[in-house]
Amino acid sequence: MKALPTRTLNIGILAHVDAGKTSLTERLLYDTGAIDRLGSVDAGSTQTDTDVIERQRGITVHSAVASFRVGDTQVNLIDTPGHSDFIAEVERALGVLDGAVLVLSAVEGVQAQTRILMRTLREARLPTLVFVNKIDRAGARADALLVDIRRKLAPHIAPMTAVRDLGTPSAKTAPHSYNDAQFGAAQGELLAEHDDAILARVVDGPPLTPAELTKALADQTARGLVHPVYFGSAIGGQGIAPLVDAVVTLLPAPTPDTAAPPRGTVFAVKRDGSGRKVAYLRLTEGCLSNRQRLTFTASDGATHTGRLTALDVVGAEGEGGTAGPSGSAPLTAGNIGRLRGLPHIRVGDRLGLPKAPGAQHFAAPTLQSVVHPRQPGTAAAARLHAALVDLSEQDPLIRARTEPGGATSVFLYGEVQKEVIAATLADVYGIEADFEPSRTVCGERPHSAAEFTEEIHRGPSPSGYWATVGLRVAPAPYGTGNVFRYETELGALPRAFHQAVEETVYDVLRSGGPQGWAVTDCAVTLVRSGFDSVMSTAGDFRAATRIVLEHALRKAGTRVYEPYHAFELEVPLGTLTAVTAQLSAMGALIEETTGGEEVRLLRGTVAARRVATLERRLPALTHGEAHWWSRPHRDRPLGGPSSSGRADRLA
Q1: Long-range contacts of range 214-219, CB-CB < 8 Å, 24 or more positions apart?
Q2: What is the longest distance spanned by two Cα atoms in the chain?
Q3: Is the CB of residue 506 less than 8 Å from the CB of residue 302?
Q4: pLDDT digits 0-9 by tens, 500-510
Q5: Helix boundaries (H) for 371-494
Q6: Cα–Cα distance measured from residue 46 to residue 422, given in angstroms and rounded to the nearest whole number
Q7: Of 35, 78, 86, 492, whose CB has the highest number of CB atoms within 10 Å?
Q8: Which residues contact 583 (CB under 8 A, 6 or more apart)?
Q9: Is a pLDDT exceeding 90 seen at residue 554?
Q10: How far is CA 623 from CA 255, 544, 618, 619, in A?
Q11: Cα–Cα distance, 314 to 328 (Å, whole number)
């Protein structure tokens, strides 16, 4: 029996679509003995793309986990989506990672999504290795690509392998050696940029030893200052061994506190063959055992409690190195577990209190589409709604929502995501559905503070319910989300009534404010409460809370905000005038222009509803030489506080 690993690394594999991310994951599992047969993306036989839609389209849609062992280190691989429509899935995964491998194609080079991913990784200060794939493909580049990586992704990179016969089927790689004086000197100069002691050694001598260079590289990689680069081929297997060695020697493994109360984050939710939820949780502190009772906090602040009925530790012995038998071992800090028996669990739920206050926030979807079943009738509509609610539990940000008239809408990041949802409905749920054209999603924030109260006296409140509820709404700081507070004495209401008020507050804010959009950055305070010990029910408090909160929001007034994207646009100098004119016509704000004699880089913000149009027009304006990327940034007021701007036409 193999000895248990003494350290665990959780790393993400990230890439632009078709750079070879899933193929690299498959190769890592195969070369380290975790699987005995290489799967194929084209054949739909890979370990991590398990959904029907993933196998059919050859893309990763949801984060998946597999693991392998190298010596005393267990590496959990989290394979994340590559398409920009699923950037929220990537951002959720980053919160549970110790490091990352960013995959580039040696042929296509630095692509739009690659830049977004690297920027996200650098903002998170996540240690990142770069793997340049497909060196055996015609058109592969090495030196020129390194120049692009320095210019477009990260200025401080350390090429760690050399390539022979680049761009041919016989391409091979060889690790650089610190015994090579030229390589050692180049590494010393690179590392000296972030370390004065190394700089002194480079200038005055003696030269750094191979051991000192290795230690310094690991230190600066761990701090996200330097990014080692490895060349290879996931399909052919070239360059994989040096990459594996770098993963276990350069990426830092945390030393978590196993004696602390359990704390962790749910980063994926799937369903097993019997339809039960399976939650993937990275435990950052403490320990979990089967049958343990757990309380989770959702991203909107609501809590729910459940008892574990089965617990699998990813990487435990028992299932070919990918999972152990249910309940065979506790889940310890630093590891990932599959949790069952939690019917209300959702992606993003947190176990235990976070180290820093506040929930984890992700860029919200900017599109919304109403979905209709092709089969007529209320039964088909009900089945569609149930399926979309189920999908929204796997990705809470799509938020299945009932519209006036009974139709169901979902929130989206792009049209590819719409196609994936439609295919999933057909393949998994047997429901053929049509989507209306997408429209831009706005939001509401309270403009001022206001209170409203419904009271019971000798009879029910004016609304007819046996419940006294008084609520005050007020603007909360930008980006903090919604929060519910009490000014009433705890215990003045039975627990069930307190819970009914709190749950309803969050539900009403999600459902939409006076102008029809979801309300955010809103502080709601319970300022008055009362009940009749004989007549009152939790249902009275749910109904009364909804009425009171809607009145309070109308009194406070709300302002509608429209989502914006931050963008970077690289264009030839000769096309700058035409491009800036188009950006201005679209209402874009150009905040910075830099560049040289041939190329200019524009940075700024633009309304999300304009992004698709700009992407269509830029190739003609720049003779196909524009490089554009954007991502959700923040929002701006659409109208005044009394505006009735539902912005239905912001499509």
Answers
A1: 214/178, 214/249, 216/191, 217/158, 217/187, 217/191, 217/250, 218/249, 218/250, 218/252
A2: 92
A3: yes
A4: 999 999 999 98
A5: 378-394, 415-429
A6: 23
A7: 78
A8: 569, 590, 602, 604, 606, 614
A9: yes
A10: 52, 61, 8, 6
A11: 12
Amino acid (1-letter code) at residue 542: R
Q: Tokens for 557?
A: 């007034």
Q: Using DSSP, state whether 561 is helix, strand or coil.
A: strand
Give the C-alpha separation, 599 to 578, whole Å. Answer: 14
| Bond preceding residue 206 cis, omega within 30 of 0 | yes
Token couple for 90: 């990537």
Q: Alpha-carbon distance 243 to 22, whole Å?
A: 15
Is the separation of the CB atoms in 188 and 181 below 8 Å? no
Please give the structure tokens belonging to residue 62. 């949801």
Please give the backbone phi and psi of residue 551, each rounded to the nearest 5 degrees, phi first: -65, -45
- Are 330 and 366 spatial neighbours (Cβ–Cβ below 8 Å)? no
- The number of C-alpha atoms within 13 Å of 105 and in the hemisphere containing its C-beta is 17
The answer for residues whose C-beta is within 8 angstroms of residue 42's C-beta and 6 or more apart is 58
pLDDT tens, position by position, 6-55: 889 999 898 887 888 888 999 999 999 988 888 765 555 555 544 444 44
HEC assignment per residue over 133-194: ECCCCCCCCCHHHHHHHHHHCCCCEEECEEEECCCCCCCEEEECCCCCHHHHHHHHHHHHCC
26 in helix, strand or coil?
helix
**482 in Cβ contact with 521 (< 8 Å):** yes
Q: Please identify which residue in the block is written with the tokens 């120049």.
A: 147
Helix (H) / strand (E) element for 117: namely helix 112-123
Q: How confident is the model at residue 328 (pLDDT cuts 50, 70, 90)?
A: low
Say if residue 356's pLDDT is above 60: no
Q: Pull the structure tokens for residue 265.
A: 């984050």
Q: What do you get for the CA distance between the two ends of the chain, in Å?
A: 60
Q: Report the C-alpha gap between 518 and 445 in whole angstroms.
A: 9
Which tokens is 567 given?
Answer: 């963008």
Q: What are the residues whose beta carbons fall under 8 Å from the beta carbon of 217, sequence distance 6 or more?
A: 158, 187, 191, 226, 228, 250
Both tokens of residue 493?
């209401």
Beta pairing class for 433-435 and 367-373: antiparallel
**How do residues 140-193 score in pLDDT, each as one tens digit?**
999 999 999 998 899 999 999 999 999 999 999 999 998 899 999 999 999 999
**What 3-state class would DSSP assign to 412?**
strand
DSSP-H helix ranges across 76-111: 87-94
The set of residues, in sequence order, having a beta carbon less than 8 Å from that of 474 and lying 6+ positions away, is: 446, 448, 449, 522, 523, 525, 556
Which DSSP letter does residue 623 get?
T
What is the SS3 assignment for 624-645? CCCEEEEEEEEEEECCCCCCCC
Token pair of 591, please? 């905040």
- Is the pLDDT assigned to residue 65 strictly greater than 90? no
